[in-house]
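Record 1 of the preview.
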Amino acid sequence: MRKIFAVLVICLLSACASDNAQQTSDVEDHSYSSREGEGTRGGTGSDGFGMNPLQDPGNILSRRSVYFDFDSYTVKSEYRDLVLAHAAYLRDNTNAQVLLQGNTDERGSREYNLALGQRRANSVRDILLLSGARDQQVEAVSLGEEKPRTLGDDESSWAENRRTDILYQGEY
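->
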């Protein structure tokens, strides 16, 4: 337990340290932003012509869903890099804001699903905050089972609905 606490403190301190280095930079922002005021410092995409990385299909930031196992709110290791990439984007773009929408499949009571959806959104939020995003940039809400991505009564449909969606300001 002591080791876990030490690692979390080190991560938090390193995030703070890297944030201060970003703020003292004397580099001017000449990057392209598809939305005014979005603040995409250094946000050139893979095409090299200034495509917004949030819209570039070749960029990990264009992926916006984190999927969960049944009755779980633990972020799977396969989605860690995705969440960390969004954390880095938020850290580097102080004007950017996200809404995390926690979702569940249709199984379970309405109350249970709302609580589980909130825990899913909060687990993604916690990783974002520990990795450099600021509290005021991230809002986590639960939609429970109210916004299914796929309709159906089978495992593949349920798996599509067990997720947290990452929506940037202007997308919600």
